[in-house]
């Protein structure tokens, strides 16, 4: 069947529009000679539906009877077909609403895509809405099925991306991709926030990733050069700062990927904490009632540092550190070093 110029194009682009499929429904309304065109979408396993509309009409009644009519997938329906199972009172009410809106005809089709998303496409209008309009909807049905399948896949990926992004945020991890020239191709929103924490990493001219340390900059450039030459490289871990803590892991991207006009070569994971050690110790004092000396030891132990290493860092004896640790365990409720790490790192400090 030959479609109006741009109708199929607008159908497949509609999932990227706001509102969804707005351009397609407007084109369909004109092509069908309809007063209104409507697309109703029900995601798999849900009772709620999304109603998309172009034009005006008694859409609530039309939507309700489309959903209640037990429409077979891929078959065309007229108004009488949709009202067949309704009681006389409901039929009379719908017809009165139709007459008030000067609507005498309805054409509808139901589409179900493989993953279970349902769609109902309908046009309502006057005498111009005849069998040709019904044939138009039936011709569009297989194309709408493909569009709904793409839409369902896109929504699943959006959901997974949102969940993954939230997990990365909670772990204080961000990522970005670089091309072989060190230019940023893509980055997460929280990576942009990390750029604002300080000067350890920044977005430079031409979107180049610029570490504050010249040695780190040279190390990164050398790594990118070797990746560009085709060498198999293991991930490169770099400590950017101890206090506040900021680490970076650079790894070659697995498989080809393109974003815009530049190809990404590596992915960079950045993990860090914008709060200094002094900030965290003050928060531990407030949260658990620790003494400042105990808080300093608790924070070092929470970084999985041993008692001996923490004592050396603080300039105290191991015996003093052990005495402090007993008081720390009592105040935090931890039953040992491993549990102390969990208690501190899963406390509200992880959110600040």
TrEMBL record:
Domain HTH luxR-type per the UniProt entry, residue ranges: 287-344
Top-level taxon: Bacteria
Any coiled-coil regions, as ranges: none
Gene3D superfamilies (UniProt xref): Winged helix-like DNA-binding domain superfamily/Winged helix DNA-binding domain (1.10.10.10)
UniProt protein name: Chemotaxis protein CheY
């Amino acid at each position: 069947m030959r479609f109006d110029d741009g109708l199929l194009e607008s159908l497949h682009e509609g999932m990227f529009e706001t509102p969804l499929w707005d351009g397609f429904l407007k084109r369909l309304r004109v092509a069908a000679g309809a007063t209104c065109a409507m697309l109703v979408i029900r995601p798999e396993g849900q009772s709620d539906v999304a109603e998309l509309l172009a034009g005006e009409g008694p859409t609530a009644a039309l939507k309700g009877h489309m959903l209640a009519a037990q429409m077979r997938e891929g078959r065309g329906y007229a108004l009488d077909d949709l009202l067949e199972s309704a009681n006389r009172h409901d039929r009379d009410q719908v017809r009165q609403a139709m007459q008030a809106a000067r609507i005498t005809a309805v054409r509808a089709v139901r589409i179900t895509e493989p993953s279970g998303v349902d769609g109902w496409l309908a046009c309502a209008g006057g005498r111009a809405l005849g069998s040709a309009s019904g044939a138009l909807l039936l011709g569009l049905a297989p194309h709408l099925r493909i569009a709904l399948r793409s839409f369902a896949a896109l929504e699943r990926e959006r959901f997974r991306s949102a969940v993954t992004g939230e997990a990365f945020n909670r772990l204080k991890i961000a990522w970005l991709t670089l091309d072989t020239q060190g230019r940023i191709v893509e980055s997460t929103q929280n990576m942009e926030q990390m750029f604002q924490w300080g000067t350890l990493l920044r977005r430079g001219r031409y979107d180049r990733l610029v570490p504050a340390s010249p040695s780190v900059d040279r190390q990164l450039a050398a790594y990118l050069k070797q990746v560009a030459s085709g060498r198999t490289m293991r991930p490169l871990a770099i400590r950017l700062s101890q206090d506040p803590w900021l680490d970076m892991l650079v790894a070659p991207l697995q498989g080809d990927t393109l974003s815009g006009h530049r190809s990404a070569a590596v992915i960079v994971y950045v993990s860090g904490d914008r709060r200094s050690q002094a900030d965290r110790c003050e928060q531990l004092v407030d949260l658990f009632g620790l003494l400042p000396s105990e808080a300093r030891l608790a924070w070092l132990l929470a970084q999985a540092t041993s008692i001996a290493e923490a004592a050396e860092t603080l300039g105290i004896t191991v015996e003093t550190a052990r005495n402090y640790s007993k008081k720390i365990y009592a105040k935090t409720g931890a039953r040992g070093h491993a549990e102390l790490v969990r208690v501190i790192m899963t406390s509200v400090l992880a959110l600040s």
